[in-house]
């Protein structure tokens, strides 16, 4: 019965997401709440596991987001602002070193997540988390594409 309630909740959350995805503002929070429900359901987290899992995972997500958006974003902005035909080898090496440093930090963050999660969930669930994240992202992208395709068709008519 508990499993059916979880599935019903997940389906309900997905329906709400599909209906509200096109609205501006708050999409990040909506997607995040769907991801929480999706991961909790797919990993079959107990209440005790979820209580310990989510602070670790949320901290990881926050730090990874910072590295991707802020740190790598700065490097990408430099690419946009400069004409790289005129860049020196020394400057190119500095950019590569910056990228390598950020990617190293991301790798270390992932290792830390795995080690921290092993203290609260089984190794099998840690591995399954990787697949569940990929599945969620794939489904999200597919729904986003379908929505954009539908909006494009509506505009043409």
Automatic annotation (TrEMBL):
<feature type="coiled-coil region">
    <location>
        <begin position="85"/>
        <end position="112"/>
    </location>
</feature>
<keyword id="KW-0175">Coiled coil</keyword>
<protein>
    <recommendedName>
        <fullName>Sensor of ECF-type sigma factor</fullName>
    </recommendedName>
</protein>
